[in-house]
Amino acid sequence: MISGIILTNIENSTEKIIKSQENNNMEKLIAEVIDNLINNPGTPENWNENKKGTPGLAIINDEGQIIPNSISYAKLIALGNDYNKLVTQKIFNSKIKTQMELQPQQSSIASVKIGETNTGNTIYSLTRLVKCDFYKKYVLKDYQNPGKCNRNHNQEEYSCDYFKIFKGNVKTSDYYLILDNTEDDVKYIVETTRVVKQKYWQSPTSDVIYLNNKIDFYDDTSAIVFVHLDKKNPKAVLVSVPKNFEKEYLEYDYFRTNDCQFIIQAWY
C-alpha cells in the first residue's frame, strides 16, 4: 500500500512537471510570435497584397523605416482572411488554436478580432501595447502637423494646407475634410490657387465635409487645393478614399495613429 501511495505521488508530481513545462513552452512560444509580428512587416513587405510570403504586422513609415511595436490594420485584416493557413498551419503547425484582438484605447473604434473562437479550454493570453493605424494610408494632410498657406494666415492662429488633384482623380476617389467631433467651433475655406471668385469662411454642418463638389478646375486639367481652418492644430485630416469606401468608417479616429492593446489568446 505504501509503495502504491509513493508511486501515485510520483506520477502526480511527474504530471505536474510535464504540465508546467508545457505551460512554459506555450507562453514562450506565444511571446516569440507576438513580438515577431509587431516588430516585423513581413517578407516581402507587401505580402498582404500579393498574398504570398511570411506574415508580419509592423507598420512601415513614409521614410521606409519599421515602426517598432506597431500594427498595420491592412495586414491584420489580410492575416484574418487567411488565418488558418498563415497562422494555425504556418506558425503553429496546427497544434495550437489562437485568436488575436486589437483593442484601440481612448478611441471610438471598436476592437477587431481575428482567428478561431475559444471552445472553453485553458487559455494562455499575452498583451502588448502597440501603435496601430486603420485607414491612415488615405491621409493627404494631417492638421496636427505644420502646413503651408497661400493667404499668409498666421499659423499661430490658423491651420492651412494643400494638395494637388487632377480631374481624373474625382472619378475614382472621394476627397474629404474630416474633423474630430470635439472640433465643433472650427470654420473652413476650400479654394484653389486659381482664384476667380473669393471664398469665405464656412461653418461645417457635419464632421465629414465632402470636397469633390467644392473643387473648381475651370478649364484646367488639375488644381492646387488649399483648405484653411481658423484654429491652430485642430484634430482634422484631409483624406482621399476610393469611391467604394464604406462611409461608416469616415471618422477622425480611423485616420490617425491610435494607441492599442494587441492580445493573443492560445489553447490546445
Give a brief outline of the structure.
With 268 residues, the chain is of the alpha+beta class.
Major sheet:
5 strands, mixed
Query: In which order are the strands of the major sheet placed?
Result: 5-8-16-6-7
Structural Rg: 25 Å
Question: How does the helix and strand content classify structurally?
Answer: alpha+beta
Total strand count, please? 16
Structure commentary:
- The chain has 268 residues and is α+β, with helices and mostly antiparallel strands.
- 23% of the residues lie in helices and 32% in strands.
- It is built from five helices and 16 strands.
- The protein has helices at 2-39, 47-50, 73-81, 83-89, 169-172; strands at residues 42-43, 54-55, 59-60, 66-67, 70-72, 97-104, 112-115, 124-133, 139-142, 159-166, 173-179, 188-192, 208-210, 222-229, 236-242, 258-267.
- The strands form five sheets. A five-stranded mixed beta sheet has the order 5-8-16-6-7.
- Helix 3 (73-81) packs across helix 4.
- The two termini are 36 Å apart.
- 24% of the residues are buried.
